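Practice problem: predict the structure.
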Amino acid sequence: MAKPFVPGTPLEEQAYAGKYQAVVDLLRTLDASGRQALGGVAARLVKISQAARYAYDDGTFAGWGRSPSDEQLRAVGAAAVVCGSAKVAAEGYFDVEDVIALAREFAPPSLEEMPAEMMRVASWRANIHDVQKLIEAGVVSRPQTDEYVLGLMLLFSHARMECRDVDAHFAADPGLKDALLRIFEVEGIGDVSLAAVDKYCHEDRTWSKRLVEFAQRGIYSRRLLIDKTLGSLERGWIQFRSGWFSQFHVRLAPTLEEMKPHALRYVSLLASRIPPTVTFALGVVKELEKADLLDPLPTLNALRPVFSSPVKSQVEAALKLGDRIVKREPACSGEAATIILPALAHESAEVQKQVLQRIEVWKLDAAGREALAPYAGGIAATHRDTLARLMGATTVASGPAAPVQASAPAAAPADSLDESRRVAPIADLDELVERVAYVFENDTDTDEFERALSGLVRFAPLSDDARARFAPLARRIGKVRKPVSQQLARLLEFLLSGTRSAADSTVDHSGHKAKAQLHLIERVNDLMDFVAHAGGATPLGTPTHRRGFIDAPEFVRRLASHQASGVKSSQGDFLVGIMRLAPRSAAAARPELAKLDAGPLSQALRHALGEDVPGPTGDLSGAARRMRALCAGIRPPPREWQLTSTKFGNGKTYTRVDVAPPGEDTPVDPVTAMSLAVEKPEKSYWFAHNSVGGIDEGSILYFASLLPADLEGLFADGVSLLSRNLDWFEAQWENAAYLRQLLHGDVPVDSLAAVLLALGLAGKEPGQAAIATDALVQSHAEGRLDVAALAGSVRGLLRGDLAACARYAKSLRAALRIEAGAASAVFAVLCEAIAARPADPPKDTASLLELMLEIVLGHRIGLPAATREALESLQVGGKGKSLRRQLLAQPAN
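Answer:
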């Protein structure tokens, strides 16, 4: 609770009373030094009154007593402007007309830097209009800061503020015309840049349209705008922001005569690191070359970086430019052949073919033929003979020496209880303090969260020394907002002060509480009760190994220790622990069961570990039955999935994957119950709350740790969410947590895990696709991948037109670059993909056929009869038709 504000000076009394004129009259009685001496009073008034405006949950309103009135804020603002620093004046002023009047009467020192400070405070986006009014009134100088330029970007488009006519602004502030050109020199931040403004405002208010109109009216010359635009592109700003300038150039539509003076600048943009800028430059350079406005050899050399581009269309455009240059200057052909060599490393076999065709015509010298050798290892199998001929060799030594068989790798999945995966308990108080601080900042490290959580329980009650050691962390408790780390903070706060604080961060963006977060809250509440009589005992649910696993013998010993020492074990803690048991350790735990009493928890554990005893009833029943089946090697039947399409009011139809709930015979354990409790509206398409983990990565990972022996429920959530966002309609970075589970060496990739992998490989977001590619390679190498399940999932997604062939081709090709030994798995996926819709093949089916042909030739894999049959009926045209013919010419399996 904030200390009450008590006015202690005449200035404070008049300001708190909301008497603006009285404040001004008081300031008139003072000279400049007297007013400056009140700067500290003005700063205090601003600090408290501004805090009071936003103290929604503070009954004292930051000590002000009530929400400040406009009269109070106006009076405080007068003191801030006349007596305070520029920063205080910028934070505290209330009305710009008051500022102008006060400036003319008092000429306070704050005015010199006040406009710049106004563009740095939290409300700076709206302040640009007030800054302009101050400039127009002649009471301040124009700021020269980048922040002011950012404000100018919003000057004519800010939705909440008055937007006067452009001519009115220019008439009132003649210097604005020149100042406005700096919007070409400042990149922008977050949602404030030329690109962002134009994206989110009406077409009539976009900068691109407005600047073209300025040129038409003669406010700026076209030559000047072209020069400024090229200057912005040369700065190499991020793709989103750079893209605005290339698009503006297109809208400006300069003539060849207007572009001619900048010809070399356009050519230099070919070396840009921003792909859209390179594409733009290629288009302009093509027009300039057609008009014979470029020197051939320098232009050819400028194309060098483009031939290393991963963008196929850019390489092809550069090759065509090379054709024109060589035709114009035949003497350049030999050098052109050398310059285009880097394009042989492109992943597209079609690009490689085009390069080889030109090399064959343009001719390489002896040094150039030697330079071909490094590309032999990555050349597509279909082009090896051509490359060998150009090198003067008979064969190109690359690819496997023997056929790649379709058998599974020899490696076995990792052991969840391997000693290297053991999670050691926290040893001492120093480590506990350090680990709690770590989890406050790293809420996605579930293993460390569990160590810290258990450590706090074991070290309770905290000694005076421990309380002193935790004092710095105690000051941070209220600032911990992430759902997982917040629960650790709640437990620490309880141990330090006995306070059970609310968990405010459990609501996602749709107003729904994630079930995993609610589970964790209840678990921490349970542990708060447990520490009262735990006496340093370890909570039953504490993992012994990574990913949440508990070694069953250790779990039995913990429960026996609780019983022997008179500690009342929590049923909630017991349920967390029993669901985390590692099934393979069940047999080793049975001899330990004799140490247990005959209570209900002991009975449930005996049943779960396979003893011939009656099963428990009530809440313990589902957990014990589920773990008993897992310990016997029995997993529930795979959950079925289907593609569902929904037509929305905008006329578009969206397709998603819906996963059926667990079968009726599956025991409803606590983890399964969370999944069943999630609302699944029939017409839901978007993501929001249709998952257990919610929208927080730490919560998703916590959910993954609750039943580590069977992640089917977790993968059901992941499949549902990823299928709704394959095209990245909304940035959902947290969903990568589902895909990362596939990287663990003890997680089988079958059933819904295979569907999740198939979705990841087809994702638009590069980061998630990369995780899926790594998961494919790793799971295959470690013997965890059910290739048939993955292939069938890809086929099902393509059949429903949810996934794109081009993305599959890109991800599968990347997998082969990482590990050639994955060829058999990739080939099996391609076979099923081709068979998805032979009568009506999806777009870009040719990209899959191209990759299939490379594998067939490079790894000597024969076509299965079913694949040959699918190819024979495949209704594909263009390049796909030729690839189909080449595949059918290959030997059968």
